[in-house]
């Protein structure tokens, strides 16, 4: 009897989770973007799948908070500001848990739009335990350009381990631990707009 009750509760939880997931999709609160990350330079030949799930887009106020933090304390202040932000979605790689995206925006382009995101990078246990230099690259960022006119022209870039700074010209610069990953085979599972 006890095992039947556990089975019933488990089944009920699965059904409830499925209904909630479907409700989120039906009401248009989620956009999922699937892509293949392809290595460049020293990572040439390496590939893996990436899933970006957007639950909400960040506000102009969120952007102002990040810009202000960056101006005051560069990369370190940016990391602290991102820690305090409400999640705007998740980024996932198969076989890994994934992590929250702190900041996600959609920028219109003549052929569609660009999705830009930035978040704190999850520091692996061994990185922290060994106090490796890689911990300094504590941000993950990326950009996905979605071409609504020619789907095969959609693409993007992923910076899995980065830090932001200001160069000698006063412009924002990105320093990477490794080379960027090219995002190809973009599939945008954007909910259909309601009429």
Assembly context of the chains: single chain
Helix tally equals: 3
Which stretches of 5+ consecutive residues score pLDDT under 50? 23-28
Compute the separation of the termini in Å: 50 Å
**Proportion of beta-strand residues:** 35-45%
Mass-distribution shape = globular
Number of strands: 10
Structural class: alpha+beta
Mean pLDDT: 80
**Rg from C-alpha positions?**
19 Å
Sequence of secondary-structure elements: HEEHEEEEHEEEE
Sheet having the most strands: 10 strands, antiparallel
Count structural domains.
1
Helix content: 25-40%
Feature tags:
195 residues; ten-stranded antiparallel β-sheet; alpha+beta; 3 helices; single chain
Detailed description of the structure:
The chain is of the alpha+beta class and about 200 residues long. The protein has one domain. Helices cover about 30% and strands about 40% of the residues. The protein is built from 3 helices and 10 strands. Strands 1, 2, 3, 4, 5, 6, 7, 8, 9 and 10 form a 10-stranded antiparallel β-sheet that branches. Strand 5 and strand 6 form a beta hairpin. It is globular.
